[in-house]
Structure formats: C-alpha cells, structure tokens
Specification:
alpha+beta, three-stranded antiparallel beta sheet, six-stranded antiparallel beta sheet, 2 domains, 4 helices, 9 strands, Immunoglobulin-like
C-alpha cells in the first residue's frame, strides 16, 4: 500500500512539473524556420550538409516522426531580439533518444559538435540532466542556425524541443530535482524498513517486498 501511495505521488509530481513544451515548433521562441531531411547512405559529412538547400523539407506539423531507424537532420533557424539574453539552453525532452549530434554556432565562427544520447553512460554525457540539454550562446539580433542529427533505437523518434534562458532553465529545473530526491528517498526508507523487519522477524516476505521495491525503482 505504501509503495502504491508513493507511486501515485510520484506520477502526480511528474505530471505537475514535467508538463512542459510539447512537440510543436511554436515551443521554441524566435524560431524562424525548422527544416528536416533524412540521412541517406552513405552519410555525407557535416561540412557538405551545412550548405545544403536541396531536399530540405519544411516542418508541417509536430516533431514526431514515428518509428524510423534512419538518422534525422533538423535545421533550426533562430533570431533572438536585441533585448534578450545571449545565454540559452536548447532542450530535447525525450530521454530515450539513442544518439544526438548537435552542431552549435560559436561566436568566433565555426561549429561546436556536441555528442550525447543513451548510448553514452550518464557520467560521460556533456550535460548532466534527465533530458538532453545543450548550452547555446546566441548573439541578439542576428540570424543563427543550429543543426541536430538524431537517431532513435527501439523507440519513437519524437523531438520535443524547447529553448529557455539559462536563468529560467535552472530556476525551473530545481523543483524537478527536489521531486526526484523526495521520491527516491521515500523508496529507500521503504526498502530499509523491510530489511529491518526481515532481520527482526525472519519472515521472507519482507525481504521479497524490499527487493521488489528496489527492482522497481532502479
């Protein structure tokens, strides 16, 4: 009963704090265009793709492309107003994506390539977060382009994008991190309580229940 109660509390918290931007282009402010194309085999080098215009498809609806093993390229064209901050966070709110290569513009020219995805261990990811986060410096009033190469493996290829200022990102991330801490802390207490009861009473069901809680959580 206690685990069911914790579970319901957890999903209520997730729905409350995680109901962020969805799968639509309007979720990214000052976005001028999103274009996409599917990578052909053999794959072309990024140096060729950044100047490509032929074959780019305009986005007609949400960024949900179903089940597809091919690599998807997204071209995002951004122009922030002069009055806004230059430090931003580009977020992809789909934690199941297998591989993401982001090509981010640098202020001195050129591109910074950032690689992440579930194929990397958590400690190897460039930014520690349950979503895929890319710090981005955008010069106010200037048109800038970001490229994303995305692959899914065993899950739907959906790309719920959002763009937040660095300040807003950290302010809105705090409740989520606190929620995770409370959730796993309560589960740890349930596991320890059942382990204590098993040691004291020598009844196997407490050990099994504690193991069940551990397996469900981790």
């Amino acid at each position: 009963m206690l685990v069911c109660f914790i579970r319901r509390m957890w999903w209520g918290w997730v729905l409350a704090i995680g109901a962020g931007p969805g799968l639509w282009a309007q979720d990214v402010p000052f976005l001028h265009h999103i274009q996409y194309f599917w990578e052909q085999s053999p794959a072309a080098a990024f140096e060729e793709l950044q100047h490509r215009r032929e074959g780019l498809l305009p986005l007609q609806k949400g960024l949900n492309f179903g089940y597809n093993k091919a690599a998807l390229w997204l071209r995002l064209e951004l122009m922030p107003p002069d009055t806004l901050s230059s430090d931003w966070m580009l977020i992809i709110r789909n934690p199941s994506l297998w591989k993401i290569d982001a090509y981010l513009p640098m202020s001195e020219g050129g591109w910074q390539k950032v690689q992440t995805g579930t194929y990397l261990k958590y400690e190897q990811r460039p930014f520690w977060n349950r979503f895929w986060v890319f710090p981005l410096r955008l010069d106010p009033g200037q048109n800038q382009v970001v490229f994303l190469r995305i692959q899914a493996k065993g899950s739907a290829l959906s790309v719920p994008l959002s763009l937040k200022s660095e300040k807003d990102f950290y302010a809105q991330s705090l409740p989520g991190e606190v929620g995770y801490g409370i959730f796993f802390g309560m589960l740890a207490l349930v596991i320890l309580l059942n382990l204590f009861l098993f040691v004291q009473l020598r009844q196997r069901q407490y050990a099994l229940y504690g193991f069940l809680c551990y397996a469900w959580a981790f």
